[in-house]
From TrEMBL:
It comes from Candidatus Chloroploca mongolica. Residues 53-130 form the Beta-mannosidase-like galactose-binding domain. PANTHER family: BETA-MANNOSIDASE. GO terms for molecular function: hydrolase activity. InterPro entries: Beta-gal/glucu_dom_sf (IPR036156), Beta-mannosidase-like_N2 (IPR054593), Beta-mannosidase_GH2 (IPR050887), Galactose-bd-like_sf (IPR008979), GH (IPR017853), Glyco_hydro_2_cat (IPR006103), Ig-like_fold (IPR013783), Ig-like_GH2 (IPR006102). This is beta-mannosidase. Residues 179-276 form the Glycoside hydrolase family 2 immunoglobulin-like beta-sandwich domain. Transmembrane segments: none annotated.
Length: 715
């Protein structure tokens, strides 16, 4: 049970070596610190990496001295990047590794009227990018974060807790089955008992989002002395199910888990819970038994300094996703702030949860990875928003995504198609562990494994045709879709970089761009300048406003290209469309559709339209056509909503390069609920002159009107 947070009187002391808790008692060499925070947020530590010692001096008095004989005290560090060792009043409480797992130690009998807490923290920079040793995912190696940033520090609160003889350290609830009558729920508890005893486990389910009676379930258990795991099955009557915001209501329960000994409450653990099932059947998603189409985006840390995130900021990000008709976010190669999961539960947004592995690691991390992956699935398992576990993002050789040299590309391809310890040994073992620890969720071995017919079975698809030369251009994308269609089953990355809107861009770059500014943007702010050169004449654009327009226009074009084709293959075989990237975690030029200051780009509005529940579009090859070449333009509509639409109006107009109307059609369309794409009409164009023809499509009488223009290039 929570007592207090140690939020004040923190100091920090940089060191070259740790001294087993023995440090100067005066203030010399100590600097004021903030907790929770990252040390690079502190003045003078902006570029620091390595080792520090935190110190907190705090008073304490036992307000319940009469219960001292049965009361136990606990110190809980909720999150530290990355290695730590804790000392309280000179007593070594042990070491811990891992940034997202709470580190809890018993301190019964150690507290005094005046206390000194020391925390040795180590978080070095990962120098060997192909053999990393810290399980920090994107925080130590990613093209979407400042490469000079180091996440080191105590990034979540430090707390004091108490219990009686039995401590409830952690708990998890899983929905095994559910229907209108009951839900079968499995509970798993991590308990520490001071002595062997008989105990009562009581779970109270109280509706949070709807009116209803609380349900209470009790079980009698015999406990041994010391740390142990306790599990069981319970039934919840007439459960209200949790749905995504587009399918229903994300109804939640506040669950109170209590352990009672001799009729007295020994400890209490609150859990947010929602009753739901989620499956992937041949990569088609089913929520509570109902098939639906996943539409979403990748979610980075909401801020490069993740300690600065809170429930309000996370909720605002999820509202941006909801307004863009997204029902899933991929938590990209990291475990996020606890506030994100609570906000996703409430917003009705599913989460594809990556384990924090990004590109290649040294084999020495295997045992620690096996331990931490168990921690992740137990720590996050109660959240109904968490739908999919993924063990690794792109488990092949990438050191710098902006490096497209021939030898770099050859080495990467060898790690993709050849033997790979990360994928074939570590990721395979982690997947087996998670499948055993959580049988209720699908588990993906590693994200971005190519599926090649008769050669290997892949996983989800990554498609950067039109950006990286390793992939090729959109002509290569057309070939891939035809020859290897399974790579379209569930696509979790695609997109291009674009500059933020002008007002935001001016906050960290000049107008016009100088060579020095471009170098700085490439070095610190993510811009892949040479790759952008392959597709856009942006260096000759003149003003910053023109650069922004060019890059956002191209991003809109590429994103629509993928979304149109994936929606056109809805359920045949596409089950999921997840773009890259929702927002910037720092001021940057990235693949995002929302910038760091949460200002949507034009590409956000374009994605919002492309993800609309009712959508009208046209798929044709994005190439230069010849004069006299016959072109068929199929006008298609699709409905993802759970209700049918009667009397929608589809209008289309085809114009030549001079603006003259060549064809115009109007149709009244009825759209069944969650239907497959329907071809309403086909226009045939035989161009007689060079230039850009325009196909204008409008869809009205639907939830969100569609108005868009396709250009057909003829030369």
């Amino acid at each position: 049970m929570y007592d207090q947070t140690l939020a004040d009187h923190w100091q920090i002391h940089p060191v070259d070596t740790f001294r087993q808790g023995i440090y100067p008692r005066d203030d010399e060499g100590w600097f004021p610190a903030h907790v929770p925070a990252h040390w690079q947020q502190l003045s003078g530590f902006e570029h620091y990496a390595g080792r520090v010692v935190y110190r907190c001096r705090f008073p304490w008095s036992d307000a319940e001295a009469a219960d001292q004989a049965v009361r136990r005290r606990w110190l809980r560090l909720n999150g530290v990047f990355y290695h730590s060792r804790v000392y309280l009043n000179g007593v070594d409480l042990g070491a811990h590794t891992g940034y997202f797992e709470p580190h809890e130690r018993e301190i019964t009998g150690l507290l005094q009227r005046e206390n000194t807490l020391l925390v040795e923290v180590e978080c070095p920079d990962e120098r060997n990018k192909s053999g990393k040793t810290m399980i920090t995912g994107v925080f130590s190696h990613w093209d979407c974060l400042d490469p000079q940033a180091n996440p080191g520090g105590i990034w979540l609160p430090v707390e004091l807790h108490h219990s009686r003889a039995v401590r409830l350290a952690r708990g998890r609830l899983l929905t095994l089955t559910c229907n209108d009558r009951f839900a079968q729920i499995r509970f798993d508890l991590e308990i520490d008992a001071a002595t062997a005893c008989d105990a009562t486990v009581r779970l109270t389910f109280t509706p949070r989002t709807f009116a209803g009676e609380a349900q209470q379930i009790e079980q009698q258990r015999s406990l041994g002395r010391g740390p142990q795991q306790l599990g069981g099955l319970i039934k919840l009557r007439e459960p209200r199910l949790w749905w995504t915001h587009d399918l229903g209501r994300p109804d939640l329960y506040d669950v109170t888990v209590e352990v009672l000994v001799d009729g007295h409450i020994s400890d209490v653990l609150p859990i947010t819970f929602g009753v739901r099932t989620f499956e992937l059947r041949n990569w088609l998603p089913y929520l509570n038994g109902e098939r639906f189409l996943v539409k979403g985006n990748n979610y980075p840390p909401g801020d490069m300094r993740i300690a600065t995130m809170d429930k309000a900021r996370c909720a605002a990000d999820l509202e941006l996703a909801r307004n863009c008709h997204m029902n899933m976010l991929r938590v990209h190669a990291h475990v996020d702030h606890p506030a994100l999961y609570e906000a996703a539960n409430e917003a009705g947004i599913l989460l594809w949860q990556d384990f924090p592995l990004q590109w290649l690691y040294a084999s020495s991390i295997l045992e620690e990875a096996r331990r931490q992956v168990r921690v992740m699935v137990h720590q996050l398992g109660s959240h109904p928003s968490v739908a999919i576990w993924c063990m690794h993002n792109e488990s092949f050789l990438i050191e710098d995504t902006a490096d497209e040299g021939i030898w770099t590309r050859i080495k990467m391809q060898l790690s993709v198609f050849g033997p790979n310890w990360n994928r074939n040994v570590m990721d395979t073992q982690l997947k087996a562990i998670v499948e055993q620890e959580d049988p209720t969720r699908p588990v993906v071995r590693s994200s971005g494994e190519l599926d090649i017919t008769y050669l290997r079975e892949g996983t989800d698809g990554h498609a950067y045709f039109g950006w990286y030369r390793n992939y090729g251009d959109l002509r290569d994308a057309e070939v891939m879709q035809k020859r290897f269609p399974n790579n379209m089953r569930f696509v979790t990355e695609f997109g291009t970089q674009s500059f933020p809107n002008l007002e935001s861009s001016l906050r960290f770059m000049p107008d016009p761009l100088t060579d020095e500014a471009i170098t700085q943007l490439a070095t610190r702010h993510g811009l892949q300048a040479e790759i952008m050169d392959n597709w856009l004449p942006w260096r000759q654009a003149g003003s910053l406003a023109n650069v922004i327009k060019l890059s956002q226009d191209y991003q809109i074009f590429i994103n629509r290209y993928y979304i149109d084709r994936l929606r056109n293959n809805k359920y045949r075989p596409t089950g999921g469309i997840i773009a890259f990237l929702l927002l910037d975690p720092h001021p940057a030029v990235l693949w995002s559709v929302v910038d760091y200051w949460r200002v949507p780009k034009r590409s956000y509005e374009a994605m919002r339209m492309a993800y609309s529940p009712q959508y009208a579009y046209c798929v044709f090859e994005p190439r230069m056509y010849s004069i006299g070449e016959a072109i068929t333009l199929a006008l298609s509509v699709v409905n993802d909503a759970r209700r049918g639409i009667v009397g929608a109006q589809l209008e289309a107009r085809l114009s030549d390069p001079g603006g003259n109307v060549l064809a115009e059609v109007r149709h009244r369309v009825n759209l069944p609920a969650d239907c497959l794409p329907i071809i309403v009409d086909r226009l045939r164009l035989t161009p007689t002159q060079a230039g850009r023809y325009a196909l204008t499509i409008g869809l009205t009488g639907v939830d969100h009107e569609i108005h868009q223009i396709y250009e057909i290039a003829v030369g």
